[in-house]
Structure formats: structure tokens, C-alpha cells
UniProtKB/TrEMBL annotation, chain A:
Membrane topology: Multi-pass membrane protein
Protein name: ABC transporter permease
Recorded family membership: Belongs to the binding-protein-dependent transport system permease family.
InterPro entries in the record: BPD_transp_1_N, MetI-like, MetI-like_sf
Automatic annotation (TrEMBL), chain B:
Keywords, comma-separated and alphabetical: ATP-binding, Cell membrane, Membrane, Nucleotide-binding, Transport
InterPro entries associated with the record: AAA+_ATPase (IPR003593), ABC_Ni/Peptide_Import (IPR050388), ABC_transporter-like_ATP-bd (IPR003439), ABC_transporter-like_CS (IPR017871), Oligopep_ABC_C (IPR013563), P-loop_NTPase (IPR027417)
Name used for this protein in its record: ABC transporter ATP-binding protein
Entry annotated with the keyword Amino-acid biosynthesis: no
A molecular-function term among this protein's GO annotations: ATP binding
Length: 313, 364
């Protein structure tokens, strides 16, 4: 297992390096430059380019960037917030997106699993139908519809929760965005859990467990859920990433100072360093979560764990 | 025979059991009035085609009918000992919860057909064997571990300590079936139901598994019910045979009676369809047609349409069980006193005579 992990981490680092190269090339081919202001003269633009090292060839810039990055320096912002180090810019925004996303993941997974399990256990009853209806709504309606509905009803009419995000009451004001974000996850996980659970419940080994006399929570958790979880984790991974990296629309509706909105502004104004840093963080999170999922597979499914151990010993 | 019979103790008695399933195509009457008895220490084999209701009957005994199954009538009386006190229950009257905590695993255990799918892939086999014992509070963890080791050795698995940590996918089919048997035996059941225990196995392993079950049955004095369509298995292991067709028992008796003196035309068909080394025909006999669709009401004898010996009355009225001896019964109008004398097909007669001769030769 250790050998396997080491190999996976090395592959991840290589992948990130490749992503960085592609990012650099894509920005190189993007039209315009960070200094598009009409008031600037050609001489001034050249001066600015020289100041930030943008006059050098792309290969040299790439190596300079990697060198600086390894020492924790992601460069400075060119346009959005002039000369602010990227790390400062991100440190104030990233935690907010990750916190709200993380809450949404937690809520979505827990509620989704519970709904799915109930639907499967009460297969073909009113509970099952109810869960299916919730799932269909959750999957088909985009999250901003929930966001608008929730902020109108719970925020504006009932005044239970604040309408906008505020750094003074970060938890209270994150409840509505969390719920809106988690609806899709709840729906997908519930639907998937239901299908998987029903399939597992019809399997021979559940009949064997029942004929041993096993019943109740022990049967559900130890025998049914554990086997149903393997495919569920596969759909969970991309959901987690999309939630953690922040949603642009939700961030706009609740005016959350997260990184989703920052990325869009950065692309519009050619703020190279911000784009690279955020895209790089997205990739790193994705790769990291995939790694965690792979390890989780091993913990849950002995077939995968043992196969890995055998092929790496 | 009758004398000793009374001395023996009835462990399972099924009366007038009828079960139907609600399906997308309507109601299917899968079991239509099954009656069956089993005495302690004896072996009963239920034979019949696929869909004749063998497995459904036993799943009802086990309390693991699928959720769309409805029990229309009948009783399944089961008696067992708890702390040396004899307890009689009607399994059909028990709640699922009571069934799981008092009967399943503890007093009735089951071996399933396909060992490749009947073990939980995410639990190691040690845990799966120990689980039932710990669940029923028969043993603490340490005792359960010891007992699991013993069981693995009993079912012929070498290197038991190492195997306890293995997962199902690391074992072969024969080994897995041994594990399934060990799981079934974990709590010393009174009744062991084997649902085609050798069908999914290699021919070379089949005989070993049958021997193993027989051995254990002798050692632990448990009753065994085999569900099978393999008459070879029946001949090897059973004391009694019940032949099922379309949700009913059409003939039952001791293994000798059913094999050497079959009375029901369906049993004749089954026996004729069994290949053996002395048959020189080019084509193996098959029973014409296929079993009736049980989602329609069956008029008369369900087997009549496939039966070349069918009488007129067979199409109108269902035959009752006719008594041949104290232990041998068959449901066919041919046994009625007014029925024409019909003998079994000559080819089968010859084969049975040959088998009888071999048996008596072996006896010498």
C-alpha cells in the first residue's frame, strides 16, 4: 500500500506539471494582454511588461514561475488588485469557497445517503415515491433556482437567515448557499444509493446473511451499505470537486467573496497570475480528491485493496 | 417401519401451504397446497423442474420469501429445543424479527446454490463464520474464533488460521461452498436446507461436498432437506423423496419406493430422462412440452397436457393423493380403483430392473 501511494503521489505531481505547461501555453495564445488600457502608450506598456518580466520568452517565464512557486510565491495580480500577491488574494477567498462547498458536500452526502437508504428499504411505498420526486426535482432544477426560492422564502419573507453573505456571521449567512449547493448532490446520491441498495438487497449474500439471522441496522450497514458504497463513491468524487471549487452563480446571488467569481473576473481582464493560480488549485484539488477516493476504494473493497498490494509488492 | 416411525420425532411438518406472487403479469400461484413431513436426523430430497416451487417452499420455511410473495394458507410447524425445552412453533405465524432472532441460523440454516455469489465480498470469511455465533450470543469473540477454526477444519479446509483472513474472491468455488457450509453449521442448527448445493460446482467437487454434508449430518444428528433436480444426488443422499410439479407434490415416498416403484407418470418421465451408462438410445428421453403457466388457473391435473397416460378426468378434476404404502403416496388418477391398468414405460421398467439387480449384486 505504501509503495502504491508513493507511486500515485509522484504521478499526481507529474500531472500537475503537465497541467501547468498547458495553462501557460493557453494563456500565451489568448488575445490581448493584462495592460489593455487605451490611455497607456506603447512605451508605457513595454515598461510594464519589462517590470513584470512579460517581455521574456514563454519558456523562461515558465521556469521562473515554477521556481517562484516552489518557494510559495505565486506572483502578483496585474489588474484586479494591483501588485497584491496572489497568495494574499486567494487566502482571503479560498477558505470561504471551500468551507461552503465542504458544508454542501457533507449535507448532500449525509441527506442523500439517508434518503436513498429509506427509499430502498421502503421500496415501492409512498416513501420511495417521495424520495424519487425529490431526486428528480433536485437533479433537474439548477442550483440558482433553489437559491432564489430559498432567499425569497426563508431569507426575505420569514427572515430566518441573512440574504447576503457576511464575514461577521459566516456560518449563519452560509446556510442558504450551502442548502442550494447541496440539492444536486442530495438528489444524485439519493438516486444512486437507492438503485445500488436495491440491487445489493436482492443479492445472494444478503439472503445468506438473513438466513444466518442477521437483521436490522447491522444488516443494513455491515452487509448492504458497505457493498452499495463502492459505486456511490465513484459518483461522489466529481460532485465534491465541483462543490469545493465554488459555484459562480451561487456566489453571485449571495455575494460571497469566493474564488469562483474571482476566476471569471481574472479571465475577463487577462490577469495571468490569478488565472494560473486558481486553475492550478482546481486541478490540484481534483487530483487530491481522486487520490483520496482511490484509497477509500481500497478500504471499503478488499478485492481492490488486495489487488493493489499484490501488484506493488 | 411404522413402529420405529412413531418413536421418531417430527421436526418439520408443512400442511396445505399455498403461496402466490404478485408480479407485473398478475398473480402467480407458485405453491398450491404442499404437504411435507420431516423427522429428526433424516434426509428429504425435493425434486422437480425449475419453477416447480422447490426453492419457494424452502424460502418460506426460512422466512426469506421475497417481498411480493403472499402466503395464502397453510402452516409450517417446526419444533426445536431451547435449553432442553421443546418448543413448537408455526413459522408462518412468527414475525420477521422473531424469526431472525430465534430461528434463522440458530435452528434452521441454509446452504445456497451458488457459492460464487452467496458470500459477502467485503467481509473476510472468518468474520462471516463468526458473525452468526456472536449475533445470536452463542459465543464471545474468542470462542467464536475457536469454533470458526474448528468448523473450517471440519469442512475440510486446510490452513484454517490463514484462511480466516481471506476474502471470498481469494477462494475457489469448492472452497467457498465449504465456507458456506461452515457458516450454516456455526450455530448447530436442527435443520439444514441445501438449495442445490452442488449445481454450481465442478463434478469432481460435487461428490466431496455431498459426502461432507452427509458426514456432518451423521456427526451432529441434524435433519437435511435437499432441493435438487439432480436425481443422482437424490439417490446418493436421501431417505425420502418428494417430487414437485407446478407447485404441488405429485409423489412422495422413501427413496427406494420412488426410484424402484414410481407410480406417477411425471416421476416416470423424470427417471426416464436421467442419463445412465447402460442406455444405448441415440436420443435422451425428455418429457414433452413445458410446465404450465401458473398465472392462469390450473384446471384438473397440471401435468395432464404433457402426459401421454392422461385420462379424461385428468383434464377436469385434480387427483388427490392416493396411498400406496404407509410412506408412499402419489397424486394420479391412474391409482384409482376404476382406472385402467397402466404400467410404466418398458424402457424404464428395464432400467429399474437393471438397477435392482445391480443393487442386490452389490449387497452380496
Amino acid at each position: 500500500m505504501k509503495k502504491y501511494l508513493l507511486k500515485r503521489v509522484l504521478i499526481s505531481i507529474a500531472t500537475l506539471l503537465v497541467i501547468l505547461v498547458i495553462l501557460f501555453l493557453m494563456l500565451e495564445f489568448m488575445p490581448g494582454s493584462p495592460f489593455n488600457d487605451e490611455k497607456l502608450t506603447t512605451a508605457q506598456i513595454e515598461l510594464l511588461n519589462a517590470k513584470y518580466g512579460l517581455d521574456k520568452p514563454v519558456i523562461i517565464r515558465f521556469f521562473n514561475y515554477v521556481k517562484n512557486m516552489l518557494s510559495g510565491d505565486f506572483g502578483v495580480s496585474y489588474t484586479i488588485s494591483k501588485n497584491t500577491p496572489i497568495s494574499t488574494l486567494l487566502l482571503s477567498r479560498l477558505p470561504i469557497s471551500v468551507t461552503i462547498g465542504g458544508q454542501a458536500v457533507l449535507l448532500g452526502t449525509v441527506v442523500g445517503l439517508i434518503l436513498g437508504i429509506i427509499a430502498a428499504l421502503k421500496h415501492n411505498t409512498i416513501w420511495d415515491t417521495l424520495t424519487t420526486i425529490i431526486s428528480v426535482i433536485g437533479v433537474s432544477l439548477p442550483s440558482y433556482v433553489f437559491a432564489l426560492a430559498l432567499s425569497y422564502s426563508l431569507g426575505y419573507k420569514l427572515e430566518w437567515f441573512p440574504l447576503l453573505y457576511s464575514s461577521k456571521a459566516p456560518f449563519d449567512s452560509s446556510i442558504l448557499p450551502t442548502i442550494s449547493l447541496s440539492m444536486f448532490t442530495i438528489a444524485s446520491i439519493a438516486r444512486f444509493t437507492r438503485t445500488e441498495m436495491i440491487e445489493v438487497m436482492g443479492s445472494d449474500y444478503i439472503q445468506l446473511a438473513e438466513s444466518k439471522g442477521i437483521s436490522g441496522i447491522h444488516l443494513i450497514v455491515r452487509h448492504q451499505l458497505r457493498n452499495a458504497l463502492i459505486p456511490i463513491i465513484t459518483v461522489l468524487a466529481p460532485l465534491i470537486v465541483s462543490l469545493m471549487t465554488g459555484s459562480l452563480v451561487i456566489e453571485k446571488i449571495f455575494s460571497i467573496p469566493g474564488i469562483g467569481s474571482l476566476l471569471v473576473t481574472a479571465i475577463q481582464s487577462n490577469d495571468y497570475n490569478v488565472i494560473i493560480a486558481i486553475a492550478f488549485i482546481y486541478s490540484a484539488m481534483y487530483i487530491g480528491i481522486m487520490l483520496v477516493v482511490d484509497i477509500l476504494y481500497g478500504i471499503i473493497d478488499p478485492r481492490i485493496r488486495l489487488a493493489k498490494e499484490e501488484s506493488h509488492e | 417401519m411404522t413402529e420405529s416411525k412413531k418413536m421418531e420425532e417430527k421436526i418439520l411438518s408443512i400442511r396445505d401451504l399455498s403461496i402466490s406472487f404478485q408480479t407485473a403479469l398478475g398473480r402467480v400461484d407458485a405453491i398450491r397446497g404442499v404437504e411435507m413431513d420431516l423427522y429428526r436426523g433424516e434426509t428429504l430430497a425435493i425434486v422437480g423442474e425449475s419453477g416447480s416451487g422447490k426453492s419457494v417452499t424452502m424460502k418460506a420455511v426460512m422466512g426469506i420469501l421475497s417481498s411480493n410473495g403472499v402466503i395464502n394458507s397453510g402452516s409450517i410447524d417446526f419444533s426445536y429445543y431451547d435449553n432442553h425445552e421443546k418448543i413448537d412453533v408455526d413459522i408462518l405465524k412468527l414475525t420477521k424479527k422473531h424469526m431472525r432472532s430465534h430461528i434463522n441460523g440458530k435452528h434452521i440454516a441454509m446452504i445456497f446454490q451458488d457459492p460464487m455469489t452467496s458470500l459477502n465480498p467485503t467481509m473476510n470469511i472468518g468474520a462471516q463464520i463468526m458473525e452468526g455465533m456472536i449475533w445470536h450470543k452463542r459465543a464471545n469473540k474468542k470462542e467464536a474464533y475457536q469454533r470458526a477454526l474448528e468448523l473450517l477444519e471440519l469442512v475440510g479446509i486446510t490452513d484454517a488460521k490463514k484462511r480466516m483472513k481471506n476474502y471470498p474472491h481469494q477462494l475457489s468455488g469448492g472452497m467457498r461452498q465449504r465456507v458456506v457450509i461452515a457458516i450454516a453449521l456455526a450455530c448447530n442448527p436442527d435443520l439444514l436446507i441445501c438449495d442445490e448445493p452442488t449445481t454450481a460446482l465442478d463434478v469432481t467437487i460435487q461428490a466431496k461436498i455431498l459426502e461432507l454434508i452427509k458426514d456432518i449430518q451423521k456427526k451432529m444428528n441434524i435433519s437435511v432437506i435437499y432441493i435438487t433436480h439432480d436425481l443422482g444426488v437424490v439417490a446418493k443422499v436421501a431417505d425420502y423423496v418428494a417430487v414437485m410439479y407446478a407447485g404441488k407434490i405429485v409423489e412422495k415416498g422413501t427413496v427406494d419406493e420412488v426410484f424402484y416403484d414410481p407410480k406417477h407418470p411425471y416421476t416416470w418421465g423424470l427417471l426416464s430422462a436421467m442419463p445412465d451408462l447402460d442406455t444405448f438410445d441415440d436420443v435422451l428421453y425428455t418429457i414433452p412440452g413445458s410446465p404450465p403457466n401458473l398465472s392462469h388457473k390450473v384446471e384438473g391435473d397440471a401435468f395432464a397436457d404433457r402426459n401421454i397416460y392422461a385420462l379424461n378426468i385428468d383434464h377436469r378434476l385434480e387427483p388427490p393423493m392416493f396411498k400406496i404404502t404407509d410412506t408412499h403416496y402419489a397424486a394420479t388418477w391412474l391409482l384409482h380403483e376404476k382406472a385402467p391398468k397402466v404400467e410404466m414405460p418398458q424402457a424404464l421398467r428395464d432400467r429399474i430392473d437393471r438397477m435392482l439387480k445391480e443393487a442386490s449384486d452389490d449387497g452380496k
